[in-house]
Specification:
This protein is α/β, with parallel strands linked by helices and 381 residues long. The protein folds into two domains: 6-157, Glucose Oxidase, domain 1, CATH 3.50.30; 167-379, Class I glutamine amidotransferase (GATase) domain (Rossmann fold, 3-Layer(aba) Sandwich), CATH 3.40.50. It has nine helices and 19 strands. It has helices spanning 45-50, 104-110, 121-131, 148-157, 208-216, 230-234, 250-267, 276-284, 371-379, and strands at 11-15, 20-27, 30-39, 57-61, 85-87, 114-117, 135-140, 176-178, 180-184, 188-191, 197-203, 219-225, 240-243, 271-274, 289-305, 311-322, 331-337, 343-348, 353-356. The strands form three sheets. The chain has a ten-stranded mixed beta sheet with strand order 8-12-11-13-14-19-18-17-15-16, with helices on both faces. It has a seven-stranded mixed β-barrel with strand order 1-2-6-5-4-3-7. The longest helix is centred in the last third of the chain and has 18 residues, at 250-267. The N and C termini lie far apart (75 Å).
């Protein structure tokens, strides 16, 4: 007996070990290869898919209903969607939200992203948690015809994220300025009207909501590409330096970024880093980083500030981490993950320099860590 057309799988997820998972396709057609990870956020799928830190990754959403509120032009973190695609439990339903401008399916297609639904995402998450983040190929073909052996070969050939410098593929190519402030339900995004300090943000894959948080503190923000020289940065006469998030292996990007960060530390300028910026700051002061088995990705990660004992619920997106035991004596560990005890923050004892692993800009996620942007402003005097 032939199956109904709706029962024919039109998408497949093939892991490097040969595991084959069938489902129904959404978004663009074709295939993409990268690292398979999972994200535990219940909201913010547009922000997740446009976060440059997800470059070369396929995102498994643990929340079963993705796409219900549709998509709009405001909830994006970059001009390009950097994730490769997504894995979902339930099919994308008709959008129901007053801000929706298009369906998630159409948005995926227009951004060249592949989706697969009908997958047991709980079992897939257990696999990633227990065995580590695997290489995978996600493919979508409306006729359901796939060359599985070819897809397996593609998955096996992909080298993995260790040693990859992906920041250079996602940062802006030109120096630019930013004056948009945080969104509110009545007025949308605001605009900075008066400035207190000048921040140079080094872009390794920066998210827009980071820039909005900086502007909302009263900072005039200049964004420079991640390979900008020390001389060019100080020529802008900044009051403080921001080291952004970004994708890939911090040791690989650090080959050219770390020497500049060291010079900036020596200059005495206040400095604030997050995510990849946090990791490269650790490398610059003599620490080391390592590849995590499955990483931290979601909007519900508890982090404790050691000095106060305060626990913050945070957003995270990282597959590499700082080795706390590698930090030298002139550096203090400031935050730790309450999931696994991994390092989530540091500060220099004799410089106005600090960083965190989590994403205080909360896009998507809770706003418990917004205070860090104010702390940076106060540090600049």
């Amino acid at each position: 007996m032939s199956r109904a057309l709706s029962d024919i799988p039109t998408a497949v997820l093939v892991l490097a070990d040969g595991t084959t998972i069938w489902g129904h396709g959404a978004g663009a057609t074709g295939h993409k290869v990268g690292e398979l990870c999972f994200n535990t956020a219940m909201t913010g799928y547009q922000e997740v898919m446009t976060d440059p830190s997800y470059a070369s990754q396929i995102v498994t959403f643990t929340f079963p209903h993705i796409g219900n509120v549709g998509c709009n032009s405001e909830d994006i973190e970059a001009t390009t969607a950097y994730a490769l695609g997504c894995v979902m439990r339930e099919p994308i339903t008709t959008a129901s939200n007053y801000r929706s401008m298009t369906s998630f399916d159409s948005w995926l297609q227009s951004n060249g992203l592949i989706g697969i639904s009908g997958v047991d995402t709980r079992a897939l998450t257990h696999l990633v948690r227990d065995k580590g983040a695997p290489t995978a190929v996600l493919a979508h073909a409306p006729d359901g015809v796939f060359d599985l052996e070819d897809l397996k070969a593609i998955a096996k050939k992909w080298p993995g994220l260790e040693g990859m410098d992906l920041a250079k593929d996602v940062w802006g190519s030109q120096t630019s300025t930013w004056d948009q402030t945080l969104w509110d339900i009545e007025n949308g995004y605001g605009q900075l009207m008066s400035t207190r300090k000048h921040v140079v943000a080094i872009d390794y894959g920066i998210k827009r909501n980071i820039l909005r948080n900086l502007a909302s503190t009263g900072s005039r923000v200049t964004v420079v590409p991640g390979n900008t020289s020390y001389e060019a940065i100080v020529a802008l006469d900044p009051d403080g330096i921001f080291l952004s998030n970004g994708p890939g292996d911090p040791a690989a990007t650090g080959a050219y970024a770390v020497p500049v960060i060291r010079q900036l530390i020596a200059s005495g300028l206040p400095m604030f880093g997050i995510c990849l910026g946090h990791q490269m700051l650790a490398l610059a002061i003599g620490g080391s980083t390592y590849k995590m088995p499955q990483g931290h990705r979601g909007a519900n990660h508890p982090v404790q500030e050691l000095e106060t004992g305060k626990v913050e619920i945070t957003s995270m997106n990282h597959g590499f981490a700082v080795n706390a035991s590698s930090l030298p004596e002139h550096v203090s560990e400031t935050h730790v993950s309450l999931f696994d005890g991994s390092n989530c923050g540091l500060k220099l004892k004799h410089n106005k320099v600090f960083s965190v692993q989590h994403h205080p800009e909360a896009s998507p996620g809770p706003q418990d860590s917004f205070y860090l942007f104010d702390r940076f402003m106060q540090m600049m005097g």
